[in-house]
Amino acid sequence: MAYSYILAVHIIFVVSWMAGLFYGVRLFIYHTEANDRPENERIILQKEYEKIEDKLWYIITTPAMILTVLAGATMIFLRPGYLLAPWLHVKLAFVAGLLIYHFICQRIMKQMKAGIFKLSSFRLRLWNEVATIFLVAIVFTVVLKSAVDWAYGLVGLIAFSMVIMMAVKWYKGYRKRKGE
Question: Where does the pLDDT of residue 146 fall: very low under 50, low under 70, confident under 90, or very high at 90 and above?
Fold first, then answer.
């Protein structure tokens, strides 16, 4: 019974964490594109983006990440036999990748706050899709567990990643044709 409650909490905070990651990088895109605005507009926009990014990151995204990890660890504590399941090792590897992604996003946010813009809005659009790839990989791993053939799963994930990247590239061309 306790496990089900912890699982529900885990899912709720995964959703919150992912929403924060998706929206955070979207804000980074707008923050970067504000550099192309006239100076008085740019200054106002960048201050506002910094404020929104900080609140999103430190009030929602990072606490949700911490609670996701704590709930996940609690679930493993309650059902230690899951540690013997190969699918859990794969999931934990993807989660480790997502944690690294989280802290890279945090570093990008801090750099932008300091006026350092290393990534173009196009590269940030590509970067935004990395979280989607992790989400898809984690969900399929958890749902399919041992029923998944890892070779086919890996090929599918690579194909999915390529489709997402092509969509981002298409969107860049579309925006360019529209003159945005």
Answer: low
Quick check: pTM over 0.70? yes
Q: Which amino acid is at 5?
A: Y
Place of tokens 């905070």: 13
Task: Specify whether the CB–CB gap between 32 and 13 falls below 8 A.
Answer: no
Q: Write down the mean pLDDT value for the chain.
A: 91
Distance, in Å, from the CA atom of 173 to the CA atom of 150, rounded to the nearest integer, reads: 35
Residue 115, Ramachandran bin (φ over 0: left; ψ between -120 and 50: alpha; else beta): left
DSSP string, 14-73: HHHHHHHHHHHHHHHHHHHHGGGS-HHHHHHHHHHHHHHHHHIIIIIIHHHHHHHHHHHH
> Which residues are CB-neighbours of 128 under 8 A, at least 6 positions away?
22, 25, 26, 29
Q: Which position has the token pair 């404020």?
A: 51
